[in-house]
Amino acid sequence: MRIMDLKNNVHAAFSIALIVLIAILMISASSVVVLMYQGGQSEKSSSIKTAKTGDLVKVDYVGKLADGRVFDTSLWSVASNGALYPKSLSFTLRNQTAYEPLEFYVGSGVMIRGFDRGVIGMAVGETKVLTVLPQDGYGQMNQSKLKTSSLVETLPVIENLNVSVFMSEFSVTPMNGLTVADPFWGWDVTVLDVDYDADRVVIMNSPVLDASYAVYGDPQGEAETGWYAVVDQYDSSANGGAGLIEVRHLLSSDDAGYVKGVDSSGDEFIVKEVDAESNKLVLNYNSEVTGVTLYFTVTLVSIGST
Prior knowledge:
Elements: H1 2-47, E1 56-64, E2 70-73, H2 76-79, E3 102-105, H3 113-118, E4 127-132, E5 146-150, E6 152-155, E7 158-161, H4 163-170, E8 179-181, E9 188-195, E10 200-206, E11 212-215, E12 227-235, E13 244-249, E14 260-262, E15 268-275, E16 280-284, E17 294-303
């Protein structure tokens, strides 16, 4: 009986030792595999070519404002899909053939600095989001290109103009009783008196009370520009007979950055600020991408000639 117990104990001890040995061998083998894998990975990573200064690269990109609107892209699928990719005011849809990867030499200075530096270190097929501050993008905003006007404007009913000014504004020779449309407001303007010797044309503005007039629209009708203004007050007897017209621009603070217009000189601007409390309307003649942080989703397509 003791002999059997001894045999059983020996067998159990042998089994335990065998299990421990197998475990040690498995751990050792796993370590070797891990080391081999890590070594292989390191060797592979060091062999991947990445973009560096002087390289000719091709990239696809989507440029967005902070609110997510696309202002530029190299991808037709993005450019042509307004529902999935809302566009900024400066975005212009081109022909499909114009959309292709952007090619440039890294560090050559042809790209904005933030974009140029952002592609350095990227591998082919890699996608990265670049955050480009104004100083690394299109520069700071030119404050002299900000024009402040009134959200609610007052104008006279009766005006005195020089003959040359009248002809320049209305593109017609003045004569008594002539009625023309105001080139900006669109309401009727009647010539009350013409005195060539005194170089004076007396006109009367005749807007319709509570009517809305389209202002700051593109005269060519090629772009969605401008907004409406409503006549809140019309008093021909105010101001000692000169009369008073009060016009309110139908804009709110929500329109800032989302509405653009074209002035009488043909210059385009974006509504930057609308403040009803201070009766202030600020028009921005800077480029939409000037003075703001931009976001580019960039995919490196190739390095070198293809």
